[in-house]
Structures are given as structure tokens and as C-alpha cells.
Design a protein that fits this description.
single chain, about 550 residues, alpha/beta, Rossmann fold, Arc Repressor Mutant, subunit A, three-stranded antiparallel sheet, 23 helices, elongated
Length: about 550
């Protein structure tokens, strides 16, 4: 009766039992072997790229047959940032990571296993703590901060494990009567686990990423409920993962040292523990130390997921990059399955790198260029328009007011066997298409250094008379070759290489002069198609402008 009295003293208003919650959150009806995973951030700041990676891993682990849910761990109200949940939800959504269940905004959720926000689940945690107290597995601890500090100082002097346990746990065997007197007197208390761990105890478990691990078992009487009645991360995570029927916990390997506590909690609560997969952090080359370090919120703008959305990296490209980090065999698979989507890739936790992956913005950019080059015209137009609507008003106005013209621009050399890879992110589009719009075209021309101004003037003057907007694309370059021959240029680079002293250059140089006059650049997609999109009037206008510039 002693323990029953204690639980009534501590939790007089908790009338539900663990059995009630087991009935409320029954095992999920899922296919055999289906996995249930979660992303469980704290709303304490912006969504970190490493967190996006963890969410990506969790979502891929669940796959199509399982369930991936978003849980908000907001028990630390002191560190909570306003609108952080909205930022987390939108940050995931920006990169196509859409949870099946959980928080969808600051005050809205979907799914049958909620609430998915821990601050709304306090009554659940208290019911389970009450049950542990009734079973003699937890107790109220009235130690003050000063007493705890004194114990830690003593332990430091004795060179023993710091913390509240064994002989240092002053209230481990407190009676119900004494607890009641202290509570009635207004003393504050926490509720601690009465750890069953032994000083020489060891536990073994298999981590889905790291492999087999052996580690010292927990002997600390950890806090389950804080003084204000909110749960600690350790305790809340155990209750939530059980009731939400989580099968796999994927998280950063900084939590590896907490596994003994978590496995012990599952044991004393009578739950089956989920499988753990501890992911190594994403690292970055440090220019100062020439070593490696974690992506830093303070030092690295690319640490924030918003960086990628603002730059305009497509979700599909970021996901492909994340997959190259997640599974080293993805790139080989992609090369062998060029037309398959990332969803077809057989992701496996045990193929995730045990060491920290190195962040590489150049590689991300290259992957993004390849990804964008495979998209059809309408997809590119819609994605650029959506991005520009949020981040670039001028670009949005230009491409939205004449969608057909913009579609014609984005269709140039798109859909071919070897599409160009000019665009790596949507923020590069404005410069890429600038010569199609007078509002963006700066009027500058890049004329190749090996072409004399008088030759360039002659080329443009002659070509302006030859240009036929109704001509066939296959006739365009032969016409340029003919003009080149007439003006003292070789018809081909090979002819020029064989007898360079005989020619001013070759037909490619002549085409380059025309290209520079029309677009301002020496390197563009197919020039004939560009001129068709610009229209005959604009082409002639640009050529005339270029001639005047060259004449000075």
C-alpha cells in the first residue's frame, strides 16, 4: 500500500492508466515488415541541413508501405522560437519531404496517434509516471540545486561517475508520509527513475547504421518529470515512440550515448524497444584548420535549409544529393538506371556511412544541373515562376506576363539526348535568359580576342543582309561557312588548324561574332533557335547595335 499511497499523493488528478492509452493507440495495421519512423525536432530555431538529412533518412526508411510522421518535441519552452514549427513544416515541404502524419502547422495536425506535439501530451506522460511510482520504479526527489551541486563536487573529488544514483540518491527510499509533508510545505520536486542498472553492467545492441555496440548500462536515477511537471526528452521519447508505434528511430549519433537510458526506460515500462539508427553528422572542410568540422549554424549559411530554397535548388536535386550522402551505392545505381526516379532506389540503412559525410556544394550544384536538364519545359517554367514569385519580382513579372514566350525560351535544346546543363538553381535563370529581355539585357558584347573589330563589323554587316528568319535550321551553319570562306576564314576548325597562316580564323569564330552581337555572349544554346525565339526584328536590332558599338 505504501507505493499506491505515494502515487495518489503525487498524481491525485490523473485518472487514466497506461492500459487506457494502450487501447487508445493500438498497434498499427500495416503490411508485414512495414516500418514506422519519425522526425522529432525541437522548435528552437531554423531547420538545419543536418536535420533535413535526418528527416530524409527517416522518410526513406519508412518508404511507401510504412509511416513517416513529424513529432514536435517542445518540452523546453525556454528555448522555443516563435513560428519555428511553421518553419520546420515548410522547410520539409520545400524539399518534398511530406510526413504521413503529425504536425502540419503551429496548431494543426493530421493522424490518429496524436497529439504529435509533446506539450499537449503531459497528461499521458503523467499516467505512465504514476504507474512507475505505483510499482516502486520511480520516486519524488526534493534535492535542491545547491544539494545537487554539492554531490557533484564530492563525486568530482572522489573521481566517480557524476549524477544522482545509489548512495547519492538522497530520496530514493523516501516514504509517502515524508513526501506528503514536504509537498504540503511547498517544497519543489522532480520525479526520478529508480534505475535498476548495475555499476558493472553492460548492454549490447545492434545499431542499424553503426552495427554491433556494447556500452555501459545506465545506473543514474534520471529525471522523468521536471519540477513544472513536464517530461524530460528521455522519458517523453520512450512513451511517444511506443504509443505512436515507432519501429525505427533514426537520429544523429550525438544521441548514441543516451541509448542505455532509452533502452532501460523501454525495459522498465514494459515496452518493446524500437531499432536505433544513429547517423553521422554532415561535415565540412574548415579553411582555417584544414580539418573537418560539423556544418555550423553560426559559420555556414548553407547550414540553414532556407539557404537552398532561396537559392532555388529544386527539391528533386537536393534529394538526389542527400541520397548520394545516405547510400554510397546510389550514384552507381543512378548511372545504370538513368530514367528511374529516386523512389525506385532500394535505400538501405545499413549502407549509410558510419563516418561523417563531407558536405560538397559543388557536387550539389552539378547534381542540380543534371537534374534540371532532364525536366520538361512546362515543369521548368512552373518551378521558376513559383520561385520568382517569392524571391525575384522582376523575373516573375517578365516570365509571367508572356508565358508562351518564356516557354519557348526554356524549351531551347531541352528534351534532347544530351541536354545542356546551363542552370544549376533557379536564381541563375535570370542571368541565363537575360538576353531575351530588353529589361535584363545590359547591351555589352563579348567579342573574341582573335577577331579584329573591322572583321567583326564586316561579318555583321554581311550577315544582316543574309539572315533569313524563314530559313531551315539545317541550312543555317552552311550559310555561315559560306560567309566565312568569302571573308577569309576557314570553313572548319580542322582546316584552320592545318593552315593557320592562311586564314583569319574559322567558321566557328564567325558564328561567335554573330552570337555575341545577338546575345552579348560567346557561349549559348543553339543560336539559330535563339534567333527564332527573339524574332527577326530584335535580331536585326541587336546586330545594328553591335556594329555601332564596334565602330565606336
Amino acid at each position: 500500500m505504501e507505493n499506491l499511497t505515494m502515487e495518489q499523493i503525487l498524481f491525485p488528478n490523473i485518472d487514466k492508466t497506461p492500459a487506457d492509452y494502450e487501447a487508445m493507440y493500438p498497434p498499427r495495421e500495416l503490411p508485414e515488415g512495414a516500418k514506422v519512423t519519425r522526425f522529432a525536432p525541437s522548435p528552437t530555431g531554423f531547420l538545419h541541413f543536418g536535420s533535413l538529412f535526418a528527416a530524409f533518412i527517416a522518410a526513406k526508411t519508412a518508404g511507401k508501405d510504412g509511416v513517416f510522421y513529424l513529432r514536435i518535441e517542445d518540452t523546453d519552452k525556454k528555448r522555443e522560437v516563435e513560428n519555428a514549427v511553421e518553419g520546420i513544416v515548410n522547410g520539409l515541404k520545400d524539399f518534398g519531404i511530406i510526413p504521413d502524419e503529425g504536425a502540419i502547422s503551429d496548431d494543426a495536425e493530421i493522424g490518429a496517434y496524436g497529439p504529435y506535439t509533446q506539450s499537449r501530451r503531459t497528461h499521458i506522460y503523467k499516467a505512465f509516471v504514476k504507474d512507475l511510482v505505483a510499482k516502486g520504479l520511480a520516486y519524488p526527489c526534493f534535492m535542491t540545486e545547491e544539494e545537487i551541486a554539492g554531490v557533484r563536487a564530492m563525486q568530482e573529488e572522489q573521481k566517480v561517475l557524476p549524477g544522482i544514483y545509489g548512495k547519492y540518491a538522497k530520496y530514493r527510499d523516501i516514504t509517502a508520509d515524508e513526501a506528503k509533508k514536504r509537498i504540503d510545505a511547498g517544497e519543489e520536486y522532480v520525479v526520478r527513475l529508480k534505475s535498476p542498472g548495475k555499476p558493472d553492467g553492460r548492454i549490447k545492441f545492434k545499431d542499424e547504421v553503426k552495427g554491433k555496440i556494447e556500452i555501459q548500462e545506465n545506473i543514474l536515477d534520471i529525471v522523468l518529470l521536471k519540477k513544472d511537471g513536464t517530461p524530460t526528452y528521455h522519458f517523453a521519447h520512450a512513451i511517444d515512440d511506443h504509443l505512436m508505434r515507432t519501429t525505427h528511430v533514426t537520429r544523429g549519433d550525438e544521441w548514441l550515448s543516451s541509448v542505455p537510458i532509452h533502452l532501460q526506460l523501454f525495459y522498465v515500462l514494459g515496452f518493446k524497444a524500437p531499432k536505433y539508427a544513429h547517423i553521422s553528422p554532415i561535415m565540412k572542410e574548415d579553411a582555417e584548420t584544414h580539418g573537418k568540422r560539423k556544418l555550423s549554424k553560426r559559420k555556414d549559411p548553407e547550414a540553414a535549409v532556407s539557404f537552398y530554397a532561396e537559392a532555388g535548388y529544386p527539391a528533386g536535386a537536393v534529394n538526389e544529393y542527400l541520397m548520394t550522402i545516405a547510400n554510397s551505392n546510389y550514384e552507381d545505381w543512378k548511372r545504370a538506371n538513368k530514367t528511374e526516379t529516386i523512389d525506385k532506389f532500394p535505400f538501405a540503412l545499413n549502407k549509410t556511412s558510419k563516418a561523417g559525410a563531407l558536405f560538397d556544394i559543388v557536387k550539389l550544384h552539378d547534381i542540380s544541373k543534371t537534374y534540371i536538364s532532364t525536366l520538361d519545359t512546362d515543369t521548368v517554367y512552373k518551378a521558376v515562376t513559383k520561385w520568382a514569385n517569392e524571391y525575384d519580382d522582376e523575373l516573375y513579372r517578365l516570365i509571367a506576363e508572356d508565358a508562351d514566350y518564356a516557354h519557348r525560351i526554356f524549351s531551347i535544346e531541352r528534351g534532347s539526348k544530351k541536354p545542356r546543363k546551363d542552370i544549376g538553381k533557379w536564381s541563375e535563370v535570370k542571368d541565363y535568359i537575360s538576353y531575351f529581355y530588353d529589361d535584363l539585357f545590359d547591351g555589352k558584347r563579348e567579342i573574341a580576342e582573335n577577331i579584329a573589330a573591322e572583321d567583326a563589323i564586316e561579318i555583321l554587316t554581311r550577315y544582316s543582309k543574309l539572315y533569313d528568319p524563314a530559313g531551315a535550321p539545317e541550312d543555317w551553319f552552311p550559310q555561315v561557312q559560306e560567309l566565312a570562306a568569302e571573308l577569309g576564314f576557314a570553313r572548319s576548325p580542322k582546316d584552320y588548324r592545318n593552315e593557320p597562316e592562311k586564314y583569319k580564323g574559322h567558321a566557328g569564330d564567325v558564328a561567335g561574332v554573330i552570337r555575341a552581337a545577338v546575345t552579348g555572349r560567346l557561349n549559348t544554346p543553339d543560336l539559330f533557335t535563339i534567333m527564332q525565339v527573339l524574332g527577326a526584328g530584335k535580331v536585326q536590332e541587336r546586330i545594328t547595335e553591335a556594329i555601332n558599338i564596334l565602330k565606336g
